[in-house]
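Form 7-S
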Amino acid sequence: MSTENITEKLAPINNICLIILAFTAATWILIYTKSILMPYVIALFISMVAATVAETLRRKWKVPYTLGLILSFIAFLSVVTLAVLFITNSIESFVQGADIYSERLDDAVDWFILQAQSHGIKLNAQFINDTIDKLPLFTVAKSVGGTVMSISTNFMLITLFVIFIAMSKATEETPAIVSNIQKQISFYLLIKISVSFLAAFCTWIVLYALKAELATMLAIVTFVLNFIPNIGPLIASALPLPILFLQYGFDWHILLAVLLLATIHFIIGNILETKWLGAGMDLDPIIVLACLIFWSLVWGVMGALLAVPLTAIIKIALSRSKTTRPFADLLAGKYPSK
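Output:
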């Protein structure tokens, strides 16, 4: 067998090995540069949305493009500042009421033990109470406050990136591929922001009507979690239940909250969002789940929030080359067997 034939047969294996090595190297770079690259990516997405909003204002109401960008950035800064203030105040009130929540938790545990014993289930009450007392509930609350402050610190870096990106867009002509990416991603993000705000607002109305504590913070968390496909709305629906349980015990408040929140997320996620997004990012649901896991492992919670737009950008980039187009088709769910 000649050397050329051997090389030709080994070419697919070599290509697979090179792809694995390139994927491993890219993953390592993403993890190593997380502290800088992640704020830059967030700033890039903010710039895309702001540019789309500014262009819409210019086309419909003749607002100058630069003024539209400035108004978009001011609106974004205002919303984020208010969200941070609401979350900080909610956490402070939660920590200040630590003793009250601790008593309610003990009462809830005692009620659960009595209910179990009334049905013939024997439980070690002392062991359960000791385990509950050791739960780091308030440590977690304080760590969430630290995370909010960390996000606020990174927000300054994000703002700087946004300014530089906006300045570069004003002086450079946008390539076709970049324009295509901006159009698709900004459309997705604008729809996602709209449905997430609607879900958060409806959640706040339900919790406020039930006089649930931390209603505002839970609504803000719902807005954020709604960006995580499939899993986020489920978590958002379940988050208020422990708060309501500590307030009222297991009664009609929890049952009504479960019914209303599940209905809200079902209508918004499966009807409104599907109708407004249409084909969406043209990503296979299984691929979306796999990418959600990957980006969560690489960039944590923020990776989960950005999983869909980041994967969509990769898909668009791969579809531009004939060599990498099969990988783009794979992300879209167009398997060779079909």
